[in-house]
Specification:
Function: Catalyzes the cleavage of L-kynurenine (L-Kyn) and L-3-hydroxykynurenine (L-3OHKyn) into anthranilic acid (AA) and 3-hydroxyanthranilic acid (3-OHAA), respectively.
Order of helices and strands: HEEEHHHEHEHHEHEHEEEHHHHEEHEEEH
Number of domains: 2
Low-confidence stretches: none
Shape: globular
Radius of gyration: 22 Å
Protein name: Kynureninase
Bound molecules: pyridoxal-5'-phosphate
Mean pLDDT: 96
CATH superfamily of the largest domain: Type I PLP-dependent aspartate aminotransferase-like (Major domain)
CATH architecture of the largest domain: 3-Layer(aba) Sandwich
Pfam family, one: KYNU_C
Oligomer: single chain
Distance between the termini: 29 Å
Cofactor: pyridoxal 5'-phosphate
CATH topology of the largest domain: Aspartate Aminotransferase, domain 2
Number of helices: 15
Number of strands: 15
Helix content: 25-40%
Largest sheet: 7 strands, mixed
Keywords: Hydrolase, Pyridine nucleotide biosynthesis, Pyridoxal phosphate
Length: 418
């Protein structure tokens, strides 16, 4: 169904119902032209509607000052809700289960304070070997905070000898084996390095059968693969907003807390006035009364300028629709894979799962040699890809702003390297 001609790419772009979204973004300039940008898994592009949205908040601050909390065109008091509402479709949750606050690793710590409750018998955390370093550091320090030894409290599930991907059967086996000692399972929904997408629904089921809590880091999932956190009964999830969601560098991250926990005001947590019941927040009284929703985990004043670009970008997600984005993404990544399989001049392997249901937009290419050189060639040709030691180039065609023509162009460059 795919072919190797340029005409094929052009025809697909013609037919693409999402093609016009590309015009809604700014691209870095290379050689006097728009770069081809395949790094949406690392930092998403700036949408063209962001500048106006930032200007509006600057004006409202000029005009309203303190009254902006209530009187701005988007009253600042509720800013997180302008982002959590469009997030509902993206992660499959109700608005009461969502909030937008802090950044990813901070939210992971906050969730672990509430959901990692080690006892003498049940104290272990299962995570993936080779998890993103920040997640590893968060888990290691949380374990130490409870006076436990990371060497015994953290179990890592790793790919088998000679393999790159984690077998789900191995996750289930550890859950079974450790069912009396597991307190928490914490996995990246998609592994940042290999691009492997885990079956979060069945892992959650297995975790709950074992009596463990389950949380996911969705940094590489949000805005990439639609999920159903509520229906799957995931306990909590956290993510950042600057990757596929295009929220801008350091944008405010997100958190999901399933309603069965979010409604429980007695769940222990680290509190602050922004998580307090709004009706009594400004009475400045003693006694923390958390909101009976995910917003009850907020601590500080809404970070308006770290949310405004996200709010603007989410408007594009809303109008494109997550299902349509995923459909295009599957096609685009399958096409990229098809082309890469026809490359004979350079040796590499694709370590991302072959099944499109087990991956998102990203393909990870492992080069045993010449990887750096290839990346250099890409850069010279105005194609921005990402390099991870020890030899992986990650390529993520983002359905909002990448085209079949972009993917074809990438293929041409790599196919013509001597
Ligand atoms: C990008 C990423 C992070 C980044 O965390 P911050 O707190 O936003 O700096 C953490 N974990 C994973 C899995 C990531 O992919």
């Amino acid at each position: 169904m795919f072919d190797l001609s340029r005409a094929f790419a052009e025809e697909q772009d013609q037919k693409d119902t999402l093609k016009n979204y590309k015009n809604q973004f700014y691209f870095p300039q290379r050689n006097g032209k728009d770069a081809i940008y395949f790094c949406g898994n690392s930092l998403g592009l700036q949408a063209r509607n962001v500048q106006q949205a930032v200007m509006q908040e600057l004006e409202d601050w000029q005009q309203c000052a303190v009254e902006g909390y209530w009187g701005a065109r988007n009253p600042w008091l509720y800013y997180q809700q302008y982002c959590s509402r469009p997030m509902m479709e993206i992660v499959g949750a109700s608005q009461e289960e969502l909030t937008v606050m802090n950044t990813l690793t901070v939210n992971l710590h906050l969730m672990m304070m509430s959901f990692y409750k080690p006892t003498k018998e049940r104290f272990k955390i299962l995570m993936e070997a080779g998890a993103f370093p920040s997640d590893q550091y968060a888990v290691e320090t949380q374990v130490k905070l409870h006076g436990l030894d990371p060497a015994t409290a953290i179990i890592e599930v790793a790919p088998r000898e000679g393999e790159f991907l984690i077998r789900e059967e191995d996750i289930f086996q550890i859950i079974d084996q450790e069912s009396s000692s597991l307190a928490l399972i914490l996995l990246g929904g998609i592994n940042y390095y290999t691009g492997q997408l885990f079956n979060m629904q069945s892992i959650t089921k297995a975790a709950h059968r074992a009596g463990a809590v389950v949380g996911f880091d969705l940094a590489h999932v949000v805005g990439n693969v639609p999920v159903k956190l509520h229906d799957w009964e995931v306990d909590f999830a956290v993510w950042c907003s600057y990757k596929y969601l295009n929220g801008g560098p350091g944008a405010v991250g997100g958190a999901f807390i399933h309603e069965r926990h979010a409604r429980d005001r007695n769940r222990p947590r680290l509190g602050g006035w922004w998580g307090n019941e709004e009706t009594i927040r400004f009475k400045m009284e003693k006694g923390f009364e958390p909101k009976d929703r995910a917003e009850g985990w907020q601590i500080s004043t809404a970070q308006v300028f770290n949310m405004v670009a996200l709010k603007a970008s989410l408007e594009l997600f809303e109008s494109a629709g997550m299902a349509a984005l995923r459909d295009k993404s599957i096609q685009l990544t399958n096409y990229l894979e098809f082309l890469l399989k026809h490359i004979e001049n350079i040796k590499f392997e694709i370590i991302t799962p072959k099944n499109c249901k087990e991956r998102g937009a990203q393909l990870s290419l492992l080069f045993h040699d010449r990887g750096k050189e290839i990346q250099q060639k890409m850069t010279e040709a105005g194609i921005i890809v990402d390099w991870r030691e020890p030899g992986v180039i990650r390529i993520s065609p983002a359905p909002l702003y990448n085209s079949y023509g972009d993917v074809f162009h990438f293929y041409e460059i790599i196919a013509n390297i001597a």
